[in-house]
Amino acid sequence: METGLPKFDSAFSIDCVIFGFEAGELKVLLIERNEDPFKDWWALPGNLVENDESIETAATRILYELTGLRDMHMEQFHTFGEIHRHPLGRVITVAYYALIRIIGQKEVKPVTQYAKKAFWHAINDLPKLAFDHSLIFDTSIQKLRRRLSYQPIAFELLPEKFTLTQLQLLYEAILSKKLDKRNFRKKMLSYGFLKELDEKQKGVSYRAAKLYKFDRRKYNKIFQNDLEG
Questions:
Q1: Which of 31, 103, 151, 191 is deepest in the core (most CB within 10 A)?
Q2: What is d(CA 27, CA 158) in angstroms, rounded to the nearest whole number?
């Protein structure tokens, strides 16, 4: 987040909550800070907005500088403006979040001295975070859970081809609860936007499962029909 600067009266910052899914675990991207305040603490990728840039431009720049990720679609989800959330002065932060596929992504690595490293961390075992970043994260996961109930956002975290077991594990990771296997599969297949492929898993030691793909065109058609109907 914000770097060590002289005491100021008011400023804007950006904080980014980037979710990924790997090995059956929902993960969030963290950095190890290299600047006061909270030097050596874990934190969400974030920093101050410069005077000559827009909020959107700042979000793109800050995420790249602290993680090396670029060309990502992020959405604003909340503004945090508690008076004493920063020890050096009044900082209002605009929080963004994004869902990405970890598989195939290049190694995350800061390109600035403000962070020592960037890394993926399982959400069920998060360390204590700098500033109010624990609150920002908690707010983001609640937003993610709400969206999951009415939009097929889970498919943005999965590989292009996936099994129903992988899909269920992702839902369970986001919702933080176990789901009945039979009911879950019946519900997912009833939506009509899962395309069963003529393929199975490869390179597994257990019985290979069928692979599926999210049919976005069919989903858009179903969604449009619902709007018109």
A1: 31
A2: 12
